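anyone seen this seq b4? input:
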Amino acid sequence: MSATSVLNSGAVIGGMLASKLADRSCPQRIVATTFVLPAITLTLMTFA
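predicted toks r here
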């Protein structure tokens, strides 16, 4: 599997999970998390 398809699949699945969590809890915290986690992940991918 290429890196692009993995990133896109993660974005789709993560978006669905984040929307469910945002409906149940604090949306601001969920949105902040969805910006921070991909930033950390993409930074770590540069070290591989």
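The CA atoms of residues 19 and 30 lie 8 Å apart. Helices lie at 3-24, 27-45. kinda curious what u guys think
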